[in-house]
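Troubleshooting entry. The earlier prediction with magnesium ion gave an output that would not parse, so I re-checked the input for stray whitespace and re-submitted. Clean input:
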Amino acid sequence: MAQHVYIADIARHAGEEVTLKGWLHNRSSKGKLHFLKVRDGTGLIQCVVFKGEVDEATFHQADHLPQETAIEVTGTVREDKRSPIGFEIGVQALSVVREPVSEFPLGHKEHGVNFLMENRHLWIRGQRQVAILRIRHTIIKAIRDYFDENGFTLFDAPILTPAACEGTSTLFEIPYFDLGKAYLTQSGQLYGEAGAMALGKIYVFGPTFRAEKSKTRRHLTEFWMVEPEVAFMDLKGDMDLMEDFVSTIVARVLAKHERELRDVLERDVEVLRRVQKPFPRITYTEAIERIRATGHAIEWGDDIGGDEETILANQFDRPVLVHRYPAEMKAFYFKRDPADPKIALGCDMLAPEGYGEIIGGGERETDFDTLKKAMDAHGLTEEAMGWYLDLRRYGSVPHAGFGLGIERTVAWICGLHHVRETIPFARMMERLTP
Ligand code: 4AD
Ligand code: MG
């Protein structure tokens, strides 16, 4: 056996004899040639078995191996202009690590989404899914790098919490010893605010949970959210941070994955190239006017739902920031606009092309009495949330932050129809397996 190399590193071994370890993805034949497409997790390469170069048994075997056979292939790395990666392997020897015990359920034909989701543990071996999961990785790495390079400290918030952050209608409740009930976190924000008062600039990054009863292409019950929170930052600073952050992430993904986006995911990368600062900024009131002007019925005070988000986002060629919402429709923690107490100093970022809200955030209420009243109105008790009020008791300062949903961001950047493909194992109302 020659030196084991990964397909991703194949260019460094041109002309050498190497061994690949992987799985048979696909095969075809033409006369005295069998073509084996082998994947090893780092890439996909064509291995050519020529009758004149291998023994009879190997040539026969190369025409009979089923899809997903685990194999080792030894051969010479040859340049090949037609190959998407520029190289192929001229096979000298093949050895089977393990043959499948039965036919791979996801053969190379069309499958329905339900069947694919039931077989998600196998579906992720497909090249499209591999590309998406790699881009997800890059997005997360870019996010961590962005905050790291800008002086933020990672601040881990608890998953088990005593109270709601984003309203009680989507809480997952679990029994919790003698204390009664706990809830899976909907957002790490409130803890992030405590972190910002201790460390100045922090970000919370973790899984969040919402018992979403809506079956839409944008909702999961378990999703990942990154939530920066900054002391002495106002709404304007928050919006500046949002657009700098998102344009940086998109540029990083383009720099690393343009080929996969274009060739594997068939994404229009020109659309992504336009994601440059500054992003348009409109108030909620202006957003309502714009939606009404298209003939769509909506009143001031109504929620801007999925359809309305699409109408609005279609009017811009890059993400749009919608700010200053009616306080009534926003969470208890938003600061009221000093110029108009009906307004909350919140801001959402809507992605273009119908992907909808990817960011929600804003400036937080700093005044003890105002916040206490809002919490009382939401049934948030001193017992569960007194600690949060302490942040206003002891050195309360203006502060702001936001939450970016990872799965919606991956869906938008990759151009996917549904968030179920953006995470290894999506959790939705009707799906808990695999
Ligand atoms: O707008 P949301 O609810 O904001 C918050 O949770 C704030 N506490 C964040 C903060 O200010 N620190 O959620 C933020 C983002 C949304 O814009 C969306 O991208 C994503 O989280 N999100 C979901 N993604 C997938 N499935 C769901 N059910 C989601 N709910 C929200
Ligand atoms: Mg929101």
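This one parsed fine. The longest strand covers residues 17-30.
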